[in-house]
Fold:
Amino acid sequence: CAMLAARDAGFPTVKLDPGTFTVAHINIDSFNGTLEGATINSTTVVFDNFSVDCQAMVNDGLTPSGIKFIRGEPRVRFMSLVAADPCSTENQPFYMLHFTGQNADGPCGNDVIFGNVDRVSIQAANNPSGNLVGVGVFPEGYELGGCKTTLLGTFKLNRSFIDDVPFGIQTNMKGAAQVDLNFNEFNDNAFPIFIDDANQITTVQFNDFVGTASGTGTYLGVTLL
Structure:
C-alpha cells in the first residue's frame, strides 16, 4: 500500500524502519522511486514459507516472485531479504526480486525498466528445493512463453551480498540494454551470475565469488548461454 500511495502521489521514497517484516509477495507496476530500509543489517524482509501460490501466478502470466517491479524506475537499497520455501506448490522457481514487464500474454510489445539494487543482502535460509533465485531481470515471456519476450532499459546491482541462493542473479535483457554488476559478493551459489540468450551490454567488475565445484568439477562465477 505504501508503494502504491508513493507511486500515485509522486513520493520518491518508501522507507522501512529497523525490524523484520514478513510478506508473501508484492507486485507493483510503474513504481518510480526507492524502497529503502534503515541499514543493510537492521531492516529485514522475510518471504514467508508456503505463502505464495506460485502456480496461480504462473496461470496469470507472472513468474513467481517476492517483490515484482513491473516497468518503471524502481530502486531497492539498505536492507536484507531472506527466503526459504515461499511457494505453496512444489518445484516452482521463486525470484526474491524480479524486475520485469507486463504479464506474459500481453498486451504485446516491448517493455522498459530502469532497475537498481544497492547495498542489499539476499540470503537463502535452508532452501531444500533449490529453486530460489536472488534477482531476476527478464520479461515474463522468457520463463512462461507468450508474446512478452523483450525487456529494454538498464539494471544495476551494486555493493550487495547474495549468499546460499542457488541462482544469484539471472538476466535476459534485449536491445543492447545496459547491465552493471559491480562490487558485489557472491557466496555458495550454484550459478552466481547467469546470463541467458541476452542482447545486453554487461559489465562485471570488482566482484568476489566464493564457492565450491559442482558435479562437473568446475566452479563458474559467470555463466553465459
About this structure: The mean pLDDT is 94.
